[in-house]
Amino acid sequence: xxxxxxxxxxxxxxxxxxxxxxAVAARAIYVVDGSLALFNAGTRTTHATLGANSAxxxxxxxxxxxxxxxxxxxxxxLVNPDAEDAPVSVASRRLLVAPMTFNAxxxxxxxxxxxxFPPGGEALTHxxxxxxxxxxxxxxxxxxxxxxxxxYEPMSAWFxxxxxxxxxxxxxxxxxxxxxxxxxxKALLGGQSSISYVKPEDLAKPKSQRYQxxxxxxxRRVP
Length: 223
Known about the structure:
- It contains no helices and 17 strands.
- By secondary structure, the chain is mainly beta.
- The chain folds into two domains: about 100 residues, Jelly Rolls (Sandwich); about 110 residues, Sandwich (Jelly Rolls).
- Strands 1, 2, 3, 4, 5, 6 and 7 form a seven-stranded antiparallel beta sheet that branches. Strands 13-10-15-8-17 form a five-stranded antiparallel beta sheet, with no helix packed on it. A five-stranded antiparallel beta sheet has the order 12-11-14-9-16, with no helix packed on it.
- Strand 11 and strand 12 form a beta hairpin.
């Protein structure tokens, strides 16, 4: 079974009218800056407000709008390849689309978290148990995988397939951080780590990255 993991960047004005997002297989919304309001579909009354550095799972039909401040938000959606995007404003745009493949009979989860590095931090060569899309929030980062090296700046995105070994080097002079969504085996539910280090000598080394988990929940249906 095939699907797409899409990452969109949304900009919403403060207290703008709510906009409908249709139901999808899975959706995570992370607020980069400002505040985002979630509305009840029936009454259009606000039932939750998210501030900066917070996230919500919203796979069912959802209405969103700007909160007391304008909002900048990242929106991951797991959808059929032929599904149309659901823009929430004229400023909505795709950052990245990644193909995903699911094995029949296997169960999956959606995990949304944030990874922070101190100046000069690194993620030693590693793999993950599933693919996912990252978006840099601050600082800079260099990703080395499959013999290639790419540098990323804030609000640029990249995809990591999971089994491909990756080395990451963060900005040498200032903190760096990225938000990500990964599609992982359901067996990791509960925040169990998906990372494996490739080099045996790296297992005991201190790790500089720090994690903040927002969403870790089963995907009830795949596209």
